[in-house]
């Protein structure tokens, strides 16, 4: 490998996976790279901006600072508001660059597949999260907070995030970068109780203990645990911590609290009922039965309950979507690959790689994507050393011309820095990290100014 040869690489997606891949590329002293970042939205950082809860400002700040450092590196360019598969196709990128790394995350979610799921009042946590975090495609989502009870289906960290946002004191949220439209809706919210439905038991819950502990820090919120034994024998250390936390939270339970979060275990939704919108959720109680791989699976008992509610939020996992022209594993919701090399029926599609949630599925915290990106880059470097990469056909100036011709509203790095500055300045005036601009047109206007 010769550091003299400039390796031109496109990274698609600017969430943790794309940015860690960029970091590894820049920091590899044996490589001499130019990295072009393509991002569907005008704004970078994927789920750091659009997923991580607004009441986790330190986490956002630390990660954004890190990514910003690599983003501003002299060999990195940004093409925001450019969607691969729409403005530019994978087969074109494969010719324009020595290598292309897809880090497009999981942009859909899993459905419950029960009757009534299409009724107004049934939304996914993914949509709700995108709405309160300022994804311009969700700024007009209709979130009905007029009923005193909301139900969140699922026992993962996202379920805890949305339950927290639904019950947190608005005065606390006002200090964050949550969108103004979400703040207005939450101020007017009638929600007094959020039921978190787990189809299995406490010991099988997917959320982590620190996220569970945070529920205990919500002012004016009491916790109730229903439906499962909080003292099962023979559980591992991590599960024991969660059991203790839930016990402590429910021991502090008080009737005087303004709002409550009910952890209801061993229940599955079976139907959403209502004439024009969700009015009730029918659930079935489950028991657990062991399956061949040693895990415990939920099995319905036939015993049913009805929960009155106006909002049912499924939080049962994200899901990757295909990019036209790339082989896709529909069962897993990931781009088909072997160890990060994109593969079709003929084998590796040389020069094309995948990392992050679109490689592994929608699992793992921010840091998990760092190792994932490193593993993928190991394959890329092996291919480079073995002479398997076809040199880029276009120079960087030619790519810029192509992008501007296809997407005149592409947001380049100075454009994002202007938008970022405008959001932070607006935030400073209100004692918040930033005030997000949530309409695409508004974002593009601010990015274009100057
Ligand atoms: C609601 C939520 C909260 C979370 N909170 C935390 C947390 O507090 N702490 C933690 O450690 N982990 C958290 N996670 C997990 C963490 O966010 C993920 O591990 C991580 O974001 C996955 O990174 P990614 O780059 O694969 O995907 P993403 O972050 O989704 O990034 C993918 C990027 O690709 C872009 N893109 C998609 N399609 C295209 C296309 N066709 N062309 C161009 N660009 C495209 C997207 O716009 C996006 O910017 C959270 C996850 C969720 C869902
Ligand atoms: N603060 C943080 O660090 C943070 C915050 C948010 C997200 N994240 C990470 O992001 C990733 C995604 O989180 P997530 O919460 O979306 O997914 P997740 O952790 O995979 O949890 C999904 C939950 O949905 C349940 N579920 C699946 N299908 C169901 C069905 N048909 N009916 C009822 N319940 C069903 C699962 O139960 P079963 O176990 O029974 O399948 C599980 O409890 C995770 O790795 C998470 O740790 C981290």
Proportion of residues in extended strands:
15-25%
Number of helices: 15
Largest sheet: 7 strands, mixed
Number of strands: 20
CATH class of the largest domain: Alpha Beta
* Overall structural domain count: 2
Strand order within the widest sheet? 3-2-1-4-20-19-18
Under the CATH scheme, the architecture of the largest domain is 3-Layer(bba) Sandwich
Q: State the end-to-end distance.
A: 42 Å
Outline type: globular
Question: Structural class, from helix and strand content?
Answer: alpha/beta
CATH topology of the largest domain: FAD/NAD(P)-binding domain
Radius of gyration: 23 Å
The distinct bound ligands, ions and cofactors come out as: flavin-adenine dinucleotide, NADP nicotinamide-adenine-dinucleotide phosphate
Q: Roughly what percent helix?
A: 25-40%
* Overall pLDDT level: 96
What is the CATH homologous superfamily assignment of the largest domain? FAD/NAD(P)-binding domain
Structure description:
The chain has about 450 residues and is α/β, with parallel strands linked by helices. The chain folds into two domains: about 5-105 and about 320-410, Rossmann fold, CATH 3.40.50; about 110-320, FAD/NAD(P)-binding domain, CATH 3.50.50. It is about 35% helix and about 25% strand. The chain has 15 helices and 20 strands. The chain has helices spanning about 15-25, 45-50, 55-70, 90-95, 125-135, 155-165, 170-175, 180-185, 210-215, 235-250, 355-360, 370-385, 395-405, 415-430, 440-450, and strands at about 5-10, 30-40, 75-80, 100, 110, 120-125, 150-155, 195, 220-225, 260-265, 265-275, 280-290, 295-310, 310-315, 320, 330, 335, 335-340, 340-345, 345-355. The strands form five sheets. It has a seven-stranded mixed beta sheet with strand order 3-2-1-4-20-19-18, with helices on both faces. Strand 19 and strand 20 (about 345-355) form a beta hairpin. Helix 1 packs across helix 12 (about 370-385), helix 6 (about 155-165) packs parallel to helix 9 (about 210-215) and helix 9 (about 210-215) packs parallel to helix 10 (about 235-250). Bound molecules: flavin-adenine dinucleotide (FAD) and NADP nicotinamide-adenine-dinucleotide phosphate (NAP). NADP nicotinamide-adenine-dinucleotide phosphate binds next to helix 6.
């Amino acid at each position: 490998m010769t550091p003299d040869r400039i390796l031109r690489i496109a990274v698609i997606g600017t969430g943790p996976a794309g940015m860690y891949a960029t970091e590894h590329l820049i920091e590899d002293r044996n490589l001499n790279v130019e990295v072009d970042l393509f991002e569907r939205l005008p704004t970078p950082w994927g789920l750091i901006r659009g997923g991580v809860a607004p009441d986790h400002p330190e986490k956002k700040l630390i990660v954004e600072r890190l990514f910003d450092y690599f983003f501003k590196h002299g060999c990195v360019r940004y093409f925001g508001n450019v969607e691969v598969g729409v403005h530019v196709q994978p087969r074109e990128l494969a010719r324009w660059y020595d290598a292309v790394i897809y880090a497009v995350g999981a942009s859909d979610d899993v459905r419950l597949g029960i009757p009534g799921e299409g009724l107004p009042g049934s939304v996914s946590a993914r949509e709700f999260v995108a709405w309160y975090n300022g994804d311009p495609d969700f700024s007009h989502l209709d979130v009905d907070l007029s009923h005193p009870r909301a139900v969140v289906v699922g026992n993962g960290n996202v379920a805890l995030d949305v339950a927290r946002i639904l019950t947190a004191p608005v005065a606390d949220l006002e200090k964050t970068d949550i969108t103004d439209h979400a703040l207005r809706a939450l101020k007017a919210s009638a929600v007094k109780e959020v039921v978190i439905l787990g189809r299995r038991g406490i010991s099988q819950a997917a959320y982590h203990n620190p996220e569970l502990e945070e529920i205990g820090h919500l002012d004016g919120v009491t916790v109730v645990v229903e439906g499962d034994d909080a003292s099962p024998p023979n559980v591992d250390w991590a599960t024991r911590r969660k059991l203790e936390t839930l016990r402590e939270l429910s021991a502090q339970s008080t009737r005087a609290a303004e709002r409550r979060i009910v952890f209801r275990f061993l229940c599955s939704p079976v139907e959403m009922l209502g004439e024009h919108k969700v009015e009730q959720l029918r659930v079935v109680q489950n028991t657990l039965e062991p399956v061949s791989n040693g895990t415990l699976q939920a099995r319905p008992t036939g015993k049913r309950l009805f929960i009155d509610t106006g909002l049912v939020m499924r939080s049962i996992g994200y899901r990757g979507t295909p990019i036209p022209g790339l082989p896709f594993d529909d069962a897993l919701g990931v781009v088909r690959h072997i160890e990060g090399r994109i593969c079709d029926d003929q084998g590796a599609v040389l020069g094309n790689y995948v990392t992050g949630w679109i490689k592994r599925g929608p699992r793992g915290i921010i840091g998990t994507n760092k190792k994932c990106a490193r593993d993928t880059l190991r394959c890329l470097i092996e291919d480079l050393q073995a002479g398997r990469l076809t040199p880029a056909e276009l120079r960087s100036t030619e790519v810029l011309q192509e992008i501007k011709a296809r997407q005149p509203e592409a947001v380049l790095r100075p454009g994002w820095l202007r938008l970022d500055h405008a959001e932070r300045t607006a935030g400073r005036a209100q004692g918040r990290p930033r005030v997000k601009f949530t309409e695409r047109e508004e974002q593009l206007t601010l990015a274009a100014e100057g």
